[in-house]
Structure formats: structure tokens, C-alpha cells
Amino acid sequence: MGRSRETFGKKNVREKQLKKRKDKEKRKLEKKEQGKQNIDDMIAYVDENGMITSTPQDLKNKMEVDVESIEIATPPKIQEEDVPKQGVVTAFDHSKGYGFIVDSQTKNSVFFHVNDCIDDNIKVGNTVEFDTEKGLKGPKAKNVRIKK
Known about the structure:
The chain is an alpha+beta fold and 148 residues long. The chain has two domains: 9-61, no CATH class; 85-146, CATH 2.40.50.140. It is 22% helix and 27% strand. It is built from two helices and seven strands. The chain has a five-stranded antiparallel β-sheet, with no helix packed on it. It has a two-stranded antiparallel sheet with strand order 1-2. A hairpin with a 4-residue loop joins strand 6 (127-134) and strand 7.
């Protein structure tokens, strides 16, 4: 009978593969054991302040709510008053015919065009009154007039 043809390298590789399979099986069993948690450990409760807790609430303080009294709707949209807004002209290009107004209440910049102006002699730094409408790229001023 001859010698075994198994070399040290082949034996080493086979042992590594066997160890790898055993480690994989061990991890698989550990995951299974972790997955078997008690259902009571997974339950969370919400208290009267909206905070999540692990203990159930005291039912003595329970309050009955009439289902009919609950309103489910979107809040009504607040209509803007007809009072014109006020602002200061921060930029105006006479050659191109447009400029920008900074609203004094919201501090937002509003675009305006010469065609939307009532007064023709608007300059940078003037305090103006205007109405707004939705433009292509944001709010747009209309009926721009110098405040008297």
C-alpha cells in the first residue's frame, strides 16, 4: 500500500472549510435564539404626553372620548386681507424693466416688472405698496405704487 496523497496544504484547506461551516452554523443558531424573544418584551405603550414607555398606563385615569366629537378635516385656508403689502425696492434695472422688493413683514424678496407698476418713477430705496400673485418662479408683485 502506498502513501496517502493528501498534502499538508490540502488538509489545511479542508480544516478551514470545516471550521467555517461550524462557525456559520453557530451564528445561525444564535440568530434563531435571539429571534425567540418574549412578545411582552416587544410591546411599547404611549402615555398621556405622547411618550413611549415600556410600562402600561394606569386605567384609573382613563378618559372616555365621544367619537362623534372628533373632527377629521384639513384646516381652512386663511384668506389674505385686501390690505396691500409694503416693502422697499432693493434692485431695479430701468433698461431691462424689472426689479425686486423686500417685503417689510416677511423680509422675502418679491419680483416685479415695469408693466405691473402704477407709478413710472420707481427707484431703488423707495418704499412701495404692492399686491402679490403667484408667478412662474415664485411670488410676483402687482399694482406696485410708491407709498405716500
